Amino acid sequence: MKSYRKELWFNIPTRRAFINITPQVIECLRESGIREGLALINAMHITASVFINDDESGLHHDYEVWLERLAPHEPVNQYRHNVGEDNADAHLKRQIMGREVVVAITEGKLDLGTWEQVFYGEFDGRRRKRVLVKIIGE
Ligand code: ZN
Question: How far is the CA of 19 from the centre of ligand 1 (A)?
């Protein structure tokens, strides 16, 4: 069995963003040389997510509105976590959007469904953060 590991680094200039990282994951898969197996892609920070959904700007706007309704950033003093920091909402947003995804690798390709794309969800940006790509198989 082959094993491949890579960290993808991000420095998002805004507090929140959704980034389609499918091309980077495909590049990792190409580098790995693995044809059959599994790819795990996870955020390595507790205020960011990796998830799979549609690359559609209306949906991304809807996520932003929905997440802000669930866990509004302001007022920051509504959260007990916000003693000396202001990112409690980012922890909550990360929880609902998830930590990781697992994608099947079939015949050297990501075996994604129609319209499925892999996203990095940033909820407390403006600093360097990482995503782990681990691919195992043969
Ligand atoms: Zn925090």
Answer: 21
